[in-house]
Amino acid sequence: MLNTIASRKHALEQKVEELEETLLQLKQQLKKEREAEQHEAIEQLEVYLDQVNNKYSNLQGFWQLLRKEISELLAVNSQRK
Questions:
Q1: What span, in angstroms and rounded, lies between the C-alpha atoms of 78 and 72?
Q2: What does the alpha-carbon distance between residue 69 and residue 62 come to, in Å, rounded to a whole number?
Q3: What Cα–Cα distance (Å) separates residue 52 from each residue in 39, 47, 49, 55, 57?
Q4: pTM for this one?
Q5: Distance (Å, rounded) from C-alpha 64 to C-alpha 52?
Q6: Which tops the pLDDT comparison, 81 or 32?
Q7: Closest by CA position to 41, among listed 33, 52, 53, 31
Q8: Residue 46's pLDDT is what?
Q9: Per-residue DSSP letters for 54-77?
């Protein structure tokens, strides 16, 4: 009877060790997945920021051109008067 109890106890201890190892592996896998997800989010943010910077640069160029053309039109109108 003691042998049976000892063997069941040993089997349960082995099962616990296996489960703990599996849990550790799953935690490591989850950590890697979260890191990969964060890297992907950062890459998407970088792409978005590049697009915003590009649009801002285009807008700056447009305003400079518009200002120049308005100044030229005002100068021409001033000379006509």
A1: 10
A2: 11
A3: 20, 9, 5, 5, 9
A4: 0.61
A5: 18
A6: 32
A7: 33
A8: 98
A9: HHHHHHHHHHHHHHHHHHHHHHHH
Phi and psi torsions of 63, nearest 5°: -65, -40
Separation in Å, CA 18 to CA 8, 12, 21, 34, 77? 15, 10, 5, 24, 88
Model confidence at 53: pLDDT above 80: yes
Residue 29 in tokens: 């896998």
Higher pLDDT, 54 or 81: 54
Here the tokens at position 2 are: 């003691």
